[in-house]
Design brief:
Length: 288
């Protein structure tokens, strides 16, 4: 986690693309000019050398980085199949290798279980146990790379294992590894948590990453997320980790279709410019 008196601010480049390539270079250059401390990118199976080159580019710009990933049914940590859980470990190790190649400090996302994969029953104790075991194993690998794993709770339409901070805290404690912590995402919390302050206080002991995301996935501050409650409580718990904007568009059609984004919310540069101003204003208001 970055050492700073103020939480560093990042921007997730999924607003443009989920594909790692040199096409991200001019985007990251402009994000640096705007005033961001770092960027977040999606990790796929692109050759690791591309991530290393991108990391070198970010280093030259003076930008830090974090990564996000999802897992599918063939690499589901919560699966009852030992083979699939082994595939989950192998897959996540490959992701960590790529994140390490670009000098990322955090790997976040709902990688505790397969994205949008449902059993049509409530989460079972053995599923939490399986997921925790995989996270612990991968935590050892992440420790060697100096990367913090920050699994994410998603809304009920995209996940069933972890919807709330209470469930996520339980899973992280079961994983029992110093490199396995947790993420808070305002978009998902807007659907699943009754009170933002209580949710943040619940996850505070293991909180390592925060996604600043509006209720409609557009520009932060334009919607109805309880932002004052969010920033006030983060200040109260003395949170100093990343505050990363995660917003979506239909710029990358394949990615947009995979997460059910069917319309445009805001132009990505509107999100980036006005979102940064909003976060800085809230940080100043609550004296981070």
């Amino acid at each position: 986690m970055p050492n700073s008196l103020v939480s560093p601010i990042g921007f997730n480049v999924l607003a443009w693309t989920a594909v790692m390539s040199e096409k991200l270079n001019p985007i990251t250059e402009r994000l640096k000019t705007i005033g961001y401390d770092g960027i977040e990118c999606f990790v796929d199976n692109t050759d690791i050398s591309v991530y290393r080159q991108f990391g070198d580019h970010l280093n030259q710009l003076g930008l830090q980085s974090t990564c996000v990933v999802v897992v599918g049914p063939d690499s589901n940590p919560a699966s009852e199949s030992a083979k699939i859980r082994e595939q989950a470990v192998d897959f996540l190790k490959g992701v960590i290798d790529r994140a390490h190649a670009m000098n990322a400090s955090v790997l976040c996302g709902p990688f505790h279980s397969a994205f949008a994969t449902f059993t049509r029953r409530e989460p079972q104790p053995d599923e939490y146990a399986h997921s925790a075991e995989v996270l612990h194993t991968v935590g050892d690998y992440a420790k060697q790379a100096n990367i913090i794993l920050a699994p994410e709770a998603l809304n009920r339409f995209e996940c069933y294992l972890c919807n709330t901070m209470e469930q996520l805290l339980q899973l992280v404690r079961m994983a029992d590894h110093p490199n396995v912590r947790a993420m808070f995402d305002t978009h998902h919390a807007n659907m699943e948590e009754k009170q933002f302050p209580k949710a943040i206080q619940t996850i505070a002991p293991v909180l390592a990453h925060v996604h600043i995301s509006e209720n409609d996935r557009g520009t932060p501050g334009d919607g109805h997320i309880p932002w004052d409650d969010t920033f006030r409580t983060l200040a109260e718990i003395k949170y100093k980790g990343w505050m990363t904007i995660e917003a979506f568009t239909r710029n990358d059609i394949d990615f947009a279709n995979s997460i059910n984004v069917w319309r445009e919310y805001n132009d990505p540069w509107d999100i980036a410019e006005n979102g940064l101003k909003f976060i800085k204003a809230m940080q100043e208001k609550y004296i981070f």
